[in-house]
Every structure is written in C-alpha cells, then in structure tokens.
Fold:
Amino acid sequence: MDDQHKTRAELLDELESLRHRVAALEANQELHESEEKYRHLFRDAALGIFHSTFDGKFIDVNPALAAMLGYASPEEVLASIYNIAAQIYAEPPRRDPIVQQALASGDIVHIENHYRRKDGSTWYGLLHLRMVKNAQGQPTHLEGFVEDISERKQTEGKIQKTLAEKEALLSELHHRTKNNMGGNYRFAGSASQLYTR
Structure:
C-alpha cells in the first residue's frame, strides 16, 4: 500500500514507530558514547584501576596499574598474575582481611598497602577497594583504585628520622643544661659560704 492510500491512523502508527526507532538509535548512540568515555577514563587514568575475583585473580587492569606493577601492558599482567596475594602483596596474608573488610562493610575500604613489582622491588600504594554487586544485589567481584604513595612514604620516613634526631638532640641539651645548672648552684653555694666566713 502506498502512502497516499494509508489511513491517518496507519500513518500515525508509522510515525510513532519511527519515533521509537529514532529514540532507540539515540539511546544506543548515548550508550556508545558513555562506554567510550569509560574506556578512555579507565585507560588514561593516573590511578591504577582493576577488577578482580574474590579469590584473587585480576579480571582487568588499566595501563597505570600495569606500570606500577612493573609490567609492559595490562595483557601481560592478566597473563602473568594468577594469585594477587602471593604475587603482588609484599605481605600476602594482608589481602584476605582487606577483602573481608570490603565484603563486610559494603562500602569502600581505604588502606595503605605494601606491594611487590614484577622485578621484586616493593612500593607503597593507597588502595580504595569496594565490592561490586549485580542487579539482584549479589556480590560479583571487587573493584579497586591504587595510588602510588611511595614518594610520600619516603618523605614521611625522612621527616620521622629528622624529628627523632632533633628529639635526641633536645634531650641531650636538656640533660647537659640541667647538669650545668646544678653545678652552678653548687658553685654559687660554695662561693656564698666563703663570703660569710
């Protein structure tokens, strides 16, 4: 049937159908743009970002985390790391309590942690970890963000050392001043006895 012989109701139905298809296409385009923004954010972030299983296998990692761990690419991390606790935690027993805390709290856990690179060297990171749930509210995996805080920890260590050295110096000065003052009082006491004789 050509458009000239369609009834007004048929034309309105077709128009409504076209509106739905256009809306679906626009929604699909918006979804595609949103996914692309997420991919760029994940790929280009300065923070390390990952998803992992509860038992300790990476699902995905971004390039920043791969670099922090000493790997050339996210793909190399996924192919090489099969046990997060044993392979990247400087203190492997720490992982289970951290994961349990994230599961129990249902919120984001923030914790400083000591990590190991591919070459065995260690570094400090600030981990932000949360449990991800599906639409039914069931836990599915972990999502984490890691910030390399090694420089900050080194600076804190230097400050602590400097403060300890200054505290020791002040203690020594206090001790010497106290001893010298006591000697001066004894000397002053002896001198006053000489004048009174």
Remarks:
- The longest helix spans residues 150-196.
- The radius of gyration is 33 Å.
- Helices lie at 8-44, 63-68, 74-80, 84-88, 95-105, 150-196.
- The chain has six helices and five strands.
